[in-house]
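EI: anyone free to look at a 128-residue chain?
SC: sure, send it
EI:
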Amino acid sequence: MIAVAVLVSAVAAFLASSGYYAAATPIERRILGDATIDRGRPGPWKVGSELVRTVVVAAVFAWLAARAGLDHLPDTVALAALLWLAFPAVLLTGSILWERVPPITAAIHAGDWLIKLLLIATLVATLH
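SC: here you go
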């Protein structure tokens, strides 16, 4: 059943992320103007690779939750929040400090990661 939870949560997180970026990208463009990176429309290989990346995140999350004995929703949500703080949030603030990534761009990516992790946590706990 864990494999189903991983696949369902990965697909759900991928779809939520796609919708999130569709909504957030115009905001980024409005704030940054010409400084916005034109990412263009993703080709099939990028879509596929993003889906694979999301499956990896969901599988590692499910594995960590299982190893820690976290199988109830409040526990998995807490794990998601801690993982978000420890990894995406720390990495993205580093990109602002060291790589001159605009704060709005980093904030958009941080929001995406938070949504993904919370959705994965919710579905892994619910479906497992």
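EI: Residues 2-127 form one domain.
SC: 👍
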